[in-house]
Each structure stands twice: as structure tokens, then as C-alpha cells.
Amino acid sequence: xxxxxxxxxxxxxxxxxxxxxxxxxxxxxxxxxxxxxxxxxxxxxxxxxxxxxxxxxxxxxxxxxxxxxxxxxxxxxxxxxxxxxxxxxxxxxxxxxxxxxxxxxxxxxxxxxxxxxxxxxxxxxxxxxxxxxxxxxxxxxxxxxxxxxxxxxxxxxxxxxxxxxxxxxxxxxxxxxxxxxxxxxxxxxxxxxxxxxx
Length: 198
Fold this sequence. Notes:
Blueprint: H1 3-19, E1 26-30, E2 37-39, H2 40-53, H3 64-73, H4 78-81, H5 97-111, H6 116-131, H7 135-154, H8 158-162, H9 167-181, H10 183-196
Antiparallel strand pairs: 1-2
């Protein structure tokens, strides 16, 4: 193998080894059985599976393979920044300018480990997910919001209890995002949450 080929593999494995650290980032959401908090690596894998299984809920023209790519890399920045729960504090911490700047710096560092072509490709996909303006990203965001809802339903309320989440908060912080990318899915999930938020 050439020196350039060796250098490329070194960079690819440097990124993959760094990505392994995502498995050590604990999220607020628990596993469906409530036995422990899930880690961000598990969350990303589960979301990719959500995209595969719930592809029929996407709008026409959504490219599920691109959605899966987005979901596999969307939380890599949590290696540096950690998980910022959507229902923490007043629910705005996850979207604060400071958090977004920290995540952008983390994306620069983490994707910067890759060879230039892969760096640019994956960073562009991450940026697209963050902006949530394309049909692919809107659907990916909807799945990112629905998976914790399902975990909370399965675990008897999970972090909704911990953060004193109301039906109104769930609707405004989560439901609107799910409905935008997967309206039929949100109709179904909302019915399930009504049992919990009586």
C-alpha cells in the first residue's frame, strides 16, 4: 500500500476510534425497559433502525439511506458537548447559541479527523440535519424526537416524570417536530401519550 493509502486508513480509523467514545455519553432517556440510561451510541443505532423500519412514514422523495447516514452521525458532537436533554431547564438549553457553537466546534474537530473528502461529505450531512430544512433532514429530526417518546412510554413515563413534562410541553417541543416530518406517525404517537398525560 502507498504512503497516501496508509495515511488515509490512519485517518479513517482515528475517526472510527474517536466515534467509539459516543458509547460513553449517557443520555437522559432510559432504555425501553427503564433499567438504565441509554448511551448516545445506542440512540444513534436505534434511530437508524427507526428510519429503516418506518421509511413508509416519510414524505415522497425522502432518501432513507441519507436519513440513516444523518442519524448515525447526528450526535457525534456529544463526544465533546454531552447530551443536552430537550426537557431540561426551560427546554431551550438544547437550542442555545452557546450549545450550538460548542457543537459546531466539536463537529470541526471530530469530522476533521477524516480524510478531506469524507470530512466534507459527513460534515455537510451533519449540517443538513442540524438545519432541518430538506425533506431528508426533516424526517430524520422527526425520528430523533419520536424515539425518546417511545422509550418514555415503554418505561412508564421515564424522564417525563424526572423533568415534570406536561402534555403541552411534549406537544410544543417534540410533537411539532414529529408532525412536520411524519404527520401520521405523530397522530399515532399522540394517541399513545394521551393515556399517560390524562
